[in-house]
Design goal:
Chain B: This is Glyoxylate reductase/hydroxypyruvate reductase. Chain B: Keywords: Oxidoreductase. Chain B: Pfam families: 2-Hacid_dh, 2-Hacid_dh_C. The complex is a heterodimer of chains A (327) and B (394). Chain A is of the alpha/beta class. Chain A folds into 2 domains: 126 residues, NAD(P)-binding Rossmann-like Domain (Rossmann fold); 184 residues, NAD(P)-binding Rossmann-like Domain (Rossmann fold, 3-Layer(aba) Sandwich), CATH 3.40.50.720. Chain A is built from 13 helices and 13 strands. In chain A, strand 4, helix 5 and strand 5 form a beta-alpha-beta unit. In chain A, helix 1 runs parallel beside helix 13 and helix 6 crosses helix 8. The radius of gyration of chain A is 22 Å and the shape is globular. The two termini of chain A are 32 Å apart. Chain B has 2 domains: 125 residues, 3-Layer(aba) Sandwich (Rossmann fold), CATH 3.40.50; 171 residues, NAD(P)-binding Rossmann-like Domain (Rossmann fold, 3-Layer(aba) Sandwich), CATH 3.40.50.720. In chain B, helix 4 runs parallel beside helix 16 and helix 9 packs across helix 11. In chain B, strand 1, helix 4 and strand 2 form a beta-alpha-beta unit. The two termini of chain B are 25 Å apart. In chain B, the strands form 2 sheets. Chain B has a 7-stranded parallel beta sheet, with helices on both faces. The longest helix of chain B is centred in the middle third of the chain and has 20 residues. Classes of the chains: A alpha/beta (327), B alpha/beta (394). Chains A and B meet through helix 6, helix 7, helix 8 and helix 13 of A and helix 9, helix 10, helix 11 and helix 16 of B.
Chain lengths: 327, 394
């Protein structure tokens, strides 16, 4: 690359609550000339033709028609994480811009978090912690009990990479595993984790002690779990969501939890994120919410950044793009 | 591994007339039906109910005769219900086999009651077994402890009275292994902190640079590879963890290979290489303060200490110092000394510590199974049958 300028890549900002990580910048700057949104807006005329790629870190910068129109040489938008429901794929395609994500690297961390939420909810870990540290605690009552995870029935809705990794982990807890998926997995894959296919989601909902959502958000899966589905679940069951908030009809969920139609919920994702501070989900005792941390580990985020770098380089060079997302 | 060991206990057990063959059924069911464990107590109850008993006939059958309450062996408990007593549904279970006598009833009528008591059911370490109590129970044969830890019992003293002690190692293993995994995951992924952020009135955005550490493919060092430790290893393997273990004795090769565990003869080696160190030993004079300043400083500064054994296995003051000085990254404790900790204890204020209120076996299923296991042990002693889990003083 001697004598050649590094390709110009648009980012939102560096550091702070939403920005590209400071300790990732060194690596990125070896490969790209990073332009922040602020720098771009201050010098549109010069920079607009130079920008060849957008490094979209946690859905920022937001890509709309206006931005696409002003970046004539944009080749690729590399998006962090596996979800692409925040992108208008048809719009990007109409501008001839390619899209990539980081689908596989997030799988183990997200599966781990699914297990963490299931265990924490079932064993009342957060409540237990609060009791252990509360200034009012004088003794630990003998009749304070949770429910067992080992040997229980787990219903996995969406048996993609993440769902399958959850099944691998749950098997070690001797859980009975049911799954619902658009298509049935191969027999060897099912046997390896002892998973039983439920063609109808109703069957899974009726038999599961834990229902775990591991589907991507599409128009077809929007509000997949609503009042009807919640009522099909056991009153002793727990709903765990590690996918997207919009898979669940949140109002129906609130009602189901308030009326003990289901026992509890554990959510890494909501709609929106964060929820408004007066939202009923924040006040329910039988809910735990985590701030969308499915892939939030140092190692994984670093590898995500490296994969995005690779995709951008391929996109700019016109080569086959790793982890390309097609419309 | 365990299956072969326990099946040795399935020798035919000579039946004494009128006594149920409960101990035999219990061992068999435990070993054979782990996958059906949620149904185990139902199976046991069905067998019990189908015994061909008929009041008024002098038939000596292999099943239990229906006995009048007072004929049932007397068992002393602290209390029924309340915050520290035996749970109501467990008391109902006990009443099927025993004449339950509460401490209050005993103290109000010592003369009559003392002779009837053949056993004590110790639940949540109560009632306290001291010399005075032992001296006042001339027909006491066995102390049936609910739970596996017996560090609250003076085994030598109890033995000197000719009284046996039993615990419940089978019932505790799964739920305690689950809590070990729950604590490791919660600590690594900062789950409790995350929940606090998610619901805090001050939260406006979720920061994208808020990170935890990975569990998958990390190194787990298990100190104490008994039943519970082994079940933790089985679970951790599914997370592709690298598993090291330290134990008084090395496990058999097949057992090690089944979970991919590597033996560390020296605990120091395990401490130096592990990302997560989990303590799963019983508390004895040898394991008291097993983890102190030296051991903590051998651990990686990025490591997490998890304790699901007994608080006294750790030098708590040394732990506080290590956490404050970031000698280790974090700790997750289901057990402390004492429980609960004094409300001004530094461990309660550190933000790299999660503490749970000794809930290793706090599930509806486990509490029930522990009572069943204790009952089977007590009956075995009283009927002169092989005892499933007797504990001997050193």
């Amino acid at each position: 690359m001697e004598g050649q300028e590094l390709p110009y890549v648009l980012i939102d900002c560096i550091g702070g609550v939403h920005g590209v990580y400071e300790d990732h910048v060194g690596f990125l700057q070896k490969h790209f000339h990073l332009i922040t949104m602020k720098e771009y807006l201050e010098n549109k005329t010069l920079l607009s033709k130079k920008i060849r790629a957008i490094y979209m870190w946690y859905q920022k910068p937001v890509v709309n028609k206006e931005l696409l129109q002003s970046l004539p040489n944009l080749r690729i938008v590399a998006s962090s994480g596996v979800g692409i429901d925040h992108l208008d794929l048809n719009l990007l395609s109409s501008f001839g811009v390619k899209v990539s994500n980081t689908p596989f690297i997030v799988s183990t961390d997200t599966a781990d978090l699914g297990m963490a939420l299931m265990l924490a909810s079932s064993r009342r870990l957060v409540e237990g912690y609060e009791m252990a540290v509360s200034p009012d605690t004088e003794y630990f009552p003998a009749d304070w009990l949770g429910a067992e995870v080992s040997g229980a029935t787990l219903g996995i809705v969406g048996m993609g990479t993440i769902g399958y990794k959850v099944a691998e982990r749950a098997k070690a807890f001797e859980m009975k595993i049911l799954y619902h998926n658009r298509s049935q997995r191969k027999k060897e894959e099912e046997s390896a984790v002892g998973a039983v296919y439920c063609k109808k989601i109703d069957d899974l909902l009726q038999q599961s002690d834990f229902v775990l959502l591991a589907v991507n958000l599409t128009p077809q899966t929007h509000k997949l779990i609503g009042k009807r589905e919640l009522e099909l679940m056991k009153p002793t069951a727990t709903l765990i969501n590690i996918s997207r908030g919009l898979l669940v009809d949140q109002d129906a969920l609130v009602e189901a939890l308030q009326n003990k139609v289901i026992k509890a919920a554990a959510l890494d994702v909501t709609y929106p994120e964060p929820l408004p501070r007066d939202h009923p989900l924040l006040k329910l005792k039988n809910v735990i919410i985590t701030p969308h941390i499915g892939s939030a580990t140092k190692k994984t985020r670093r590898i995500m950044m490296e994969e995005m770098t690779e995709s951008i380089q391929a996109g700019i060079a016109g080569l086959p793009i790793p982890h390309e997302v097609l419309p | 591994m365990f299956v072969s060991k326990a099946f040795n206990l399935l020798k035919p057990i000579p039946l004494m007339s009128g006594q149920s063959n409960l101990a035999y059924k219990f061992i068999h069911q435990l070993v054979a039906s782990h996958g059906r464990r949620c149904h185990r107590s139902v199976i046991y109850k069905q067998r019990y109910r189908t015994c061909p008993c008929s009041a008024g006939r002098q038939t000596i059958s292999a099943q239990t005769k229906v006995m009048a309450k007072e004929e049932l062996p007397g068992v002393l408990i602290l209390d029924i219900g309340g915050t520290q007593g035996v749970l109501e549904n467990l008391a109902a279970l006990l009443k099927k086999h025993f004449h339950l006598i509460t401490m209050k009833e005993f103290l109000e009528n010592k003369e009559e009651m003392s002779k009837k008591i053949q056993s004590v059911f110790v639940f949540e370490c109560r009632p306290t077994i001291d010399r005075e109590l032992l001296e006042s129970l001339p027909n006491l044969k066995v102390i049936g402890n609910s739970g596996v830890g017996v560090d609250h019992l003076d085994l030598k003293m109890i033995s000197s009275f000719g009284v046996k002690v039993t615990n419940t190692p089978h019932a505790v293993a799964d739920p305690t292994a689950d809590i070990g995994m729950a604590l490791m995951l919660a600590s690594a992924r900062r789950l409790v902190e995350g929940c606090q952020i998610a619901v805090s009135p001050d939260t406006k955005h979720f920061a994208v640079d808020w990170l935890g550490v990975e569990v998958t493919r990390a190194t787990l060092g298990i100190i104490g590879m008994g039943s519970i430790g082994y079940k933790v290893a089985q679970r951790a393997r599914a997370f592709n963890m690298r598993i090291l273990y330290h134990n008084r004795n090395r496990r058999r090769k097949e057992e090690e290979e089944a979970v991919g565990a590597h033996y560390c003869e020296k605990m120091e080696d395990l401490l130096q290489q592990s990302d997560f160190v989990m303590l799963i030993v019983n508390l004895t004079p040898e394991t008291h303060r097993l983890i102190g300043k030296k051991e903590l400083s051998l651990m990686k500064p990025t490591a997490t200490l998890i304790n699901i054994s007994r608080g006294a296995v750790i030098d708590q003051d040394a732990l506080v110092e290590a956490l404050q000085s970031k000698v280790i990254r974090a700790a997750a404790l289901d057990v402390t000394y004492p429980e609960p900790l004094p409300r001004d204890h530094p461990l309660l204020k550190l933000n790299n510590v999660i503490i749970t209120p000794h809930i290793g076996t706090a599930t509806v299923q486990a509490i029930h199974m522990m009572a069943e296991e204790a009952i089977a042990n007590i009956l075995a002693v009283l009927n002169g049958q092989p005892i499933p889990s007797e504990v001997f003083p050193k």
